[in-house]
Amino acid sequence: MSSAVPHNRRRTPRIPLEVPAQFMLQQSAPILVKTVDASIGGVCIVTSQSVAPGSPCMIAFDLMTQEGQRRINAWGVIVDVRQQGDSRYHCRIAFTDMDTRSRYFMRQFTNDGE
């Protein structure tokens, strides 16, 4: 077994963000989850159920911005799921689409002015 350090595939840095969120898989009811971190390219959530990588999803959460609390609405795909020691799962979601206002506030949050 190799002891090499795993390659970091993230294009954008993630910033710690622990807020409640609503998470939905296709044709399912919203599930209350908690975010772990976020970037302009995606978010990590903690959930009590395993989700298959490749699954399309939607996530909504409130973000505190310079203009007050704003709702972020994003669509994405599950790219990685890791079981934690406490029967919870960390699910990494890559954003595939986001409404214009959500993208504006996420860029503000991450200081990404691209």
Can you walk me through this structure?
The chain is mainly β and 114 residues long. Helix content is 10%, strand content 52%. Strand 2 and strand 3 form a beta hairpin. The protein is globular, with a radius of gyration of 14 Å. Residues 1-8 have low confidence and may be disordered.
Observed structural traits:
114 residues, mainly beta, six-stranded antiparallel β-barrel, 7 strands, 10% helix, 52% strand, disordered N terminus
Please provide the count of β strands: 7
Helicity, as a percent range: under 10%
Spatially, the strands of the biggest sheet line up as 2-3-4-7-6-5
Beta-strand share of residues? over 45%
Could you write a compact summary of the structure shown?
This protein is mostly beta strands and 114 residues long. The chain has one helix and seven strands, in the order βββββββα.
List the helices and strands and how they pair.
Elements (H helix, E strand, L loop, with lengths): L14 E2 L3 E6 L5 E9 L2 E6 L8 E10 L2 E16 L5 E10 L1 H11 L4
Antiparallel strand pairs: 1-3, 2-3, 2-5, 3-4, 4-7, 5-6, 6-7
